[in-house]
Amino acid sequence: MFLELQIRSTYLYLEINNRNGNYNLSFWRYLSTVKVTLIHATWCTACPATRRFWNDLKSKYDFEYEEIDVESQEGQALIDKYGIVGVPTTLIDGEPAFTGLPKKAEAIARIT
């Protein structure tokens, strides 16, 4: 049996083979965690549901999560950087991913 394990800066790779090559199992997983940033506003009517949505997923999946108020200095910088015109807006790993309440299956696919 042959076992290979590689630990890279962003992922883990494991491969198992038997000696005659008939059996092969490989597995890899990203080691870095996905970062979800929700840009929201106190006056936004859709934001509370979106906040609950991401907090619920956070209780079931492993990802970093932060909320940034659109009226904060950091929020304004993100609005300017990405040309965001509506809230709630969700960034995944620093890139705009969703505006409004995401569909659950799409959100899970992006964070797993």
TrEMBL record:
Source organism, top-level taxon: Archaea
Keyword Transport: yes
InterPro entries recorded: Thioredoxin-like_fold, Thioredoxin-like_sf, Thioredoxin_CS
Residue ranges of domain Thioredoxin-like fold in the record: 35-107
Keyword ATP-binding in annotation: no
Pfam family, one: Thioredoxin_3
Keywords: Electron transport, Transport
Similarity-based family: Belongs to the glutaredoxin family.
The protein, known as: Thioredoxin
